[in-house]
Automatic annotation (TrEMBL):
<keyword id="KW-0378">Hydrolase</keyword>
<protein>
    <submittedName>
        <fullName>ATP/GTP-binding protein</fullName>
    </submittedName>
</protein>
<keyword id="KW-0547">Nucleotide-binding</keyword>
<dbReference type="Pfam" id="PF03029">
    <property type="entry name" value="ATP_bind_1"/>
</dbReference>
<comment type="similarity">
    <text>Belongs to the GPN-loop GTPase family.</text>
</comment>
<dbReference type="InterPro" id="IPR004130">
    <property type="entry name" value="Gpn"/>
</dbReference>
<keyword id="KW-0342">GTP-binding</keyword>
<dbReference type="InterPro" id="IPR027417">
    <property type="entry name" value="P-loop_NTPase"/>
</dbReference>
<dbReference type="InterPro" id="IPR052705">
    <property type="entry name" value="Gliding_Motility_GTPase"/>
</dbReference>
Length: 206
């Protein structure tokens, strides 16, 4: 669209405006390895058109990015995904999806800044890529929950078996989800909020 010769600069769409009742905003990051569904989750649950920074994958990534289980994937996030969801009339979540490839992890520093909590998306076909992700969150003191994204061709395990395999402590919630479904993704976010609330109660003075 050409705006030359016009003094009018297009603003946000009406549907993108924050509710006038909103008085609290929380930053949440969605992290995980390459191809686990972070962009999909942000897109499925966001009430606004999500901002994505996906670029077409090229030959440069061959031998560098581990795309096992995502061989048909043709685009990848190179900076971040951004979306928004109103949990109540007063509470709004800002969602930031991180890039999955290790060579882009340096961008995580800024994305973690000010985050209240995180969702770690896990693919049962590649559990090993989750360890470094969780280690980084623990090093930064960012509370997180684990969401197991159920891919059709992924092996299915009981959640407690996955807890053991991922070496998760008993206090960290782990849930199954389908990142393509808005309701399922929203349930994951609600699990995180309940977890954050319980942590806040533990720290509250008696």
């Amino acid at each position: 669209m050409d705006f030359k010769g016009s003094d009018t600069i297009p603003g946000p769409r009406t549907e993108d405006h924050l509710p006038q009742t909103a008085d609290a905003a929380v930053k949440i990051v969605i992290v995980g390895g390459f191809g686990v569904g972070k962009t999909t989750m942000v897109g499925s649950v966001s009430e606004i058109k999500p901002l994505t920074t996906e670029e077409t994958m090229t030959q440069a990534g061959i031998g560098v990015d581990d795309n096992y289980g995502s061989e048909t994937k043709t685009a990848t996030t190179v900076a971040m995904d951004f979306g928004r969801i109103s949990i109540t009339d007063q509470l709004v979540l800002y969602l930031f999806g991180t890039p999955g490839q290790e060579r882009f992890w340096f961008l995580w520093n800024g994305l973690f800044e000010g985050a209240l909590g995180a969702v770690v998306l896990v693919d049962t076909r590649r559990l090993e890529v989750s360890f470094d992700v969780m280690d980084r969150l623990e090093e930064r003191g960012v509370p997180f929950v684990v969401a197991v994204n159920t891919f059709p061709d992924g092996p299915r395990h009981h959640l407690e078996e996955l807890r053991t395999a991922l070496d998760l402590s008993e206090d960290i919630p782990i849930v199954e989800c389908d990142a393509r479904r808005r309701a399922s993704s929203r349930d994951v976010l609600m699990t995180l909020l309940r977890f954050l609330h319980s942590l806040a109660l533990e720290k509250a003075p008696v």
